[in-house]
From TrEMBL:
One GO CC term on file: cytoplasm
Biological role: Required for a late step of 50S ribosomal subunit assembly. Has GTPase activity.
Pfam families, alphabetized: MMR_HSR1
One record GO biological process: translation
One GO MF term attached to the UniProt entry: GTP binding
Domain CP-type G: residue ranges: 14-178
PANTHER family: MITOCHONDRIAL RIBOSOME-ASSOCIATED GTPASE 1 (PTHR45782:SF4)
InterPro entries from the UniProt entry: G_CP_dom (IPR030378), GTP-bd (IPR006073), GTP-bd_ortho_bundle_sf (IPR023179), GTP-bd_ribosome_bgen (IPR019991), GTPase_MTG1 (IPR016478), P-loop_NTPase (IPR027417)
Source taxon at top rank: Bacteria
Cell location: Cytoplasm
Annotated family: Belongs to the TRAFAC class YlqF/YawG GTPase family. MTG1 subfamily.
Name of this chain's protein: Ribosome biogenesis GTPase A
Amino acid sequence: MTIQWFPGHMAKARREVSEKIKLVDIVYELVDARLPLSSRNPILDDIIGQKPRIIILNKSDLADEAQTKAWITYFANEGISAIPIVAQEGKGMNKILSTSKALLKEKFDRFKAKGVNPRAIRAMSIGIPNVGKSTLINRMVKKNIAKTGNKPGVTKGQQWLKFGKEIELLDTPGILWPKFEDPMIGKKLALTGAIKDTLLNMDDIALYGLAFFKENYAQQLEKRYALTKEEAQLEPPELLMRISEKRGFRDDYDRASEMVIYEIRSGKLGRFTLDMVPVSLTE
Ligand SMILES: Nc1nc2c(ncn2[C@@H]2O[C@H](COP(=O)(O)OP(=O)(O)OP(=O)(O)O)[C@@H](O)[C@H]2O)c(=O)[nH]1
Ligand SMILES: [Mg+2]
């Protein structure tokens, strides 16, 4: 994926997403559980306005469990429900259903009180590239396909997919761009694979990843590359050289960088969360 977001693209995506949001009662803001802040979109608050939303922390199988818990508390303090899921395995789908219904209960009770025939809750998901939007939709719908015999309803040209009995899901997710301005956020997004091809070079990203693990998850680093405690505390460039040696890559540091990035991304160094909840906010 080599998308470069230029102002024109952003304006177009913003228009498209704003239009779609008008059609739904609730928005599922999909983020990477390893990056609960950096994978959020800076202008989504603007577009969503007062519409109810749920923050869905996807890929929570790859994230640090203690951090995921802390983030849920953090968002709760901001008045937002956050739900950890593993879209790939269909974990957390029921919680999305029950939370959506709870958040919209008042609105739908009002409809009922006015004698309006109850309709299904309408929802859509939104997120940056590669965060698992398609996987989530497939999971939500698959669950239902088994029950209903695969017959999505079509309303005014938009396709709605059944998610449970009481929720309809807009067929296409909204794609927004991540925040690029801050170079640190760029590195975090690159390390998790949210932007596969960027202006950042692979060495930079690998060195950033090693520095982060050395600082926060040293034991996981030691274990993966059979390093001593002292070795794991080498400066990142020396650390990369040592790992390269151990893997038999000699001085092919590009290859070592790619390997390290791939292994971090895919969870071979264990679970981790790059956006850490500020300690002062975890109490
Ligand atoms: N480990 C893990 N991987 C996941 C999970 N959900 C999705 N993935 C993987 O993440 C990658 C991206 O998933 P997609 O569903 O294609 O993401 P997307 O948001 O639709 O991506 P774009 O269409 O490119 O914007 C795929 O390789 C998925 O298998 C999850 O819960 N855990
Ligand atoms: Mg997709």
